[in-house]
Each structure stands twice: as structure tokens, then as C-alpha cells.
Amino acid sequence: MRFPGRRKHKHYFPVDKKDPLTKKLTTDVELKHPYVVGMDQTIVDIEAHVPESLLAEFKLTKGLSQLVPSEIAEALYQYIDANNLIVDQHAGGTIGNTMHNYSVLADDRSVLYGVMSQNIKVGNYAYQYLCNTSSKVDLQHLQPVDGAIGRAFTLITEDGERTFAIDSGKMNRLTPDFIDEELIKNSCAFVISAYFTRCSGEDTLDKAALKAIEYANKHKVPVVLTLGTRFMIDEKPQWWRDFIKQHVQVLAMNEEEAEALVGHSDPLLAAEAALDLADLVLCTAGPLGLYMAGFTDETFKRDTRYPLLPGSIPEFNRYEYSRPLLKSLCSNPIKIYSHIAPYMGGPDKIKNTNGAGDGALAAVLHDIASNAYHSTNVPESSKHTVPAITYSSLSQMCKYANRVSFEVLSQSSPRLSKGLPEREDSLEQAYWH
Ligand SMILES: Nc1ncnc2c1ncn2[C@@H]1O[C@H](COP(=O)(O)OP(=O)(O)O)[C@@H](O)[C@H]1O
Ligand SMILES: Nc1nc2c(ncn2[C@@H]2O[C@H](COP(=O)(O)O)[C@@H](O)[C@H]2O)c(=O)[nH]1
């Protein structure tokens, strides 16, 4: 496990168990590695740069992810192929991306639940998916299906906005009997997107997801939900509020999804309202950067050393140096918030914003897993007198999440091709120095 950024040495690994002469860990110290489990629709992104008129022609709403019947998908494919509009094809899926990015950042194992075509040919979509996924993502738990995985036509318009037209294939056929209770029980987080509810006919992914969530809740493994796309939440906001309140501890969303969920267009107010539903909230807000909100106990709160910020909640960042806890573990819970503007103002040119939010979530997961790693291997550390969900403070996580989003935007692709540097070239600008 690579740690999220530079950290104080006193918290590093069992220094007291090192050989005093060689300064190496003695051989009988075997560090235990936590893993996160994600569940997703297995999807390949077919990225094409298109004029806005194409969206209207295919009745697609800009900025959203929408299912299309297979004959429309085929017509769309023929059109973008014939007009040479396809710029790339790569593995996608919101949780597939998140698991990949997590494994790249942490340099450690994650497990992906989903389906995979049982007949794979060199070059087909299933093959591309496997080739584009980090070797640290454990794909042994993909269920074989007779048919194609999903395709996401990722249509990038001139303003860099991405619109998805999804051709489902067999991506929703993961069955509940395939879910291993022990695998979920021993994980440090279970991660899912709201897309699991987009099932119909013979689809079983929704039932598989509910089974996995039931196991996670039973064994007190944090459930991390990302909201996917706005109009799914618009369709039944009360259902989602109830679902989150009952099953979810960590909630990730962008400002549009947040508005659909809790009715506030201001991301800070939306994050605050979402604390009625979940324990820890990440709300990304495009060019405005991102917000995090959570709980800490009155006894553990830590004042920020940054200037106090105005906003819809005045001086909202006062306790951003605190590490977040589950609300149920606080005797006197107080709400804590943090915000960060885009890293270095954002890349000079953003060709597309595909996957920026997934990148931020992967960073938060990395921090959660680092905490599990450290507390399992160094339980006596002073760090763990506070039963926090994360290794870092809210402020530090915002920096890290934001930095990862910047990397995704800079490389114009949702899956990181490499981890972040241990140290940034410019230490002045390095957030974690
Ligand atoms: N136009 C932009 N300029 C600068 N940074 C951006 C821009 N769009 C996104 N980002 C960065 O990427 C993060 C996630 O982006 P966002 O668009 O909110 O996520 P999503 O992909 O889920 O909609 C933001 O918090 C910000 O750090
Ligand atoms: N599992 C699903 N993933 C989907 C769907 N529609 C789009 N996507 C994936 O989202 C990422 C980009 O995410 P964002 O951060 O830009 O929102 C992309 O790689 C798509 O594959 C879906 O219906 N299900």
C-alpha cells in the first residue's frame, strides 16, 4: 500500500518492530493489506467528438448518461464510425474506473464484481476492457455471461462536456448467488454507483447489489455510493434519500446530482443536507472545485490553520483539520466541512471532463483504505485513539481528491495511466507537503 502523499514519520509503519541495526522490518512482520470491493456494469467507453446537432438527432440529453435501445446504439455506432469521429475506445464504467484508479494510486488490490463475456476474442470489447484494467484490480470475481459487455458511447461536444448513450448488452446480468459474503465481510469498503438500479427484464444486477449491500451492512463494512447521473436521482429522490439513510455511509456526487437529491443548488448547502443521510459526503462542483462534509466529535475537533471562509455556512471550514467519524461513534457530533478550488486553477485546456468525479472518489477510497491498513498493522498508534473513517483530515482529503481529478482532466481519460508523484516538482504547489 502506497500512502496518500507525504506523512509524518511518527505514524509510519511498525518502526518499533524494525531491526535496530539494519533498520529493516524483521521478517516475521507481515503487513496485512486491506482491499476494497466494487460492483459495476462492465462497460467499454467509445469516445467520439461530435457536433451538438448529433445529440438532438439521436434524442440524447446533453451531459447525462442514458440507456438507448440496441438498434439506436448500432445506428449511432455506424454514424460515428463512418464519419471518423471515434477518437478512442477504452475500459469505462464509473466503478470500474474508480477501482482501477484506486489500485493505481494505492498500488494495491481492489476487487471488481460484474460480468465478463465468456467468449473473448483479441480486439473485442471484453478484450479491450481486460487490457485496460490495472493488474492490481482482481477480476477473478467477474461472472461469465454469454454475450457482449456494455458500450458507453461517450460523446464529447465542443465545450468538453460528455454525454453517454449506453448500449447495455449483458452488463446487468450479475446474479445474487455469485456474491461471496466472506469477500465483502473482509473488505474495508464496498463501492457501488446508483446505476445498479437501471435494470429491466431479465436483469439481475439490482438484486446482486442489494445482496452485497446487505452483507456490507451486516458486517459494518462502509458502503460507498456514487450517484452516477442526475436524472436517475430526479426520477425518485425520496427513494434515494431513504436508501442512503438506511444503507450508505459515504456518499459521492456532483453538484447536479446533489441538487436532485436534496434540493440545494449550492454545493455546500447540499453537502450539509446530505449529512442527514450519510456520514461522509464528497460533492464535486466542476470549475468550483469540490467540497467534503462529515462529522467529528466535539473532543476530537481540530481548528484549521487556513483563513476562515465565508459562504452559505459562514466560516464553514473552521474544523477542516479534523478527521471524520461515523456519526454513531460521536458522543457530541459536530459537522465539519472543507472546500478546495481546482488544483492550479485546472489544466490549461480541458478536452473532456470524463471521469473527473470518479478520480476524486478513488482518492477518498485510498485514504479510507490507508486508515484500515494502518490501524490493522499498527493498532497501538496514537492515530487510532480517534476511531476515524479516514487516515487524513477533511482538508487533506480535499487536496488529494482535487489533485487526482486534475490528473484525470490533464490526461483526458478517466483511467489514470500512472500514480501520482511521491513529491511534486514544485514543492510550493504540492498540497501534501
Ligand atoms: N472546468 C473545470 N476546471 C477546473 N477543474 C475542473 C473542471 N471540471 C472539473 N474539475 C475538477 O474535477 C473535479 C470533478 O469534476 P466534476 O465535473 O464535478 O465531476 P463529475 O465528473 O462527477 O461531474 C472538480 O472537483 C474539479 O477539481
Ligand atoms: N456503470 C455505469 N457507468 C457509466 C454509465 N454511464 C456512464 N458511465 C461511466 O461513467 C464514466 C465517467 O464518469 P463521470 O465521472 O464523467 O460521470 C465513464 O467511463 C462511463 O463509462 C452507466 O450507465 N453505468
TrEMBL record:
It catalyses: inosine + ATP = IMP + ADP + H(+); guanosine + ATP = GMP + ADP + H(+). Its EC number is 2.7.1.73. GO terms for biological process: GMP salvage; IMP salvage; purine ribonucleoside salvage. Residues 134-299 form the Carbohydrate kinase PfkB domain. Pathway: Purine metabolism; IMP biosynthesis via salvage pathway; IMP from inosine: step 1/1; Purine metabolism; GMP biosynthesis via salvage pathway. ATP binds at residues 284-289, 357, 402. It holds the Pfam family PfkB. It is an enzyme of class 2 (transferase). Keywords: ATP-binding, Kinase, Magnesium, Nucleotide-binding, Purine salvage, Transferase. Its cofactor is Mg(2+). GMP binds at residues 40-45, 93-97, 198. GO terms for molecular function: ATP binding; guanosine kinase activity; inosine kinase activity. It comes from the Bacteria. InterPro entries: Carb_kinase_PfkB-like, IngK, PfkB_dom, Ribokinase-like. Belongs to the carbohydrate kinase PfkB family. Catalyzes the phosphorylation of guanosine and inosine to GMP and IMP, respectively. PANTHER family: CARBOHYDRATE KINASE PFKB DOMAIN-CONTAINING PROTEIN, SUGAR KINASE. This is Guanosine-inosine kinase.
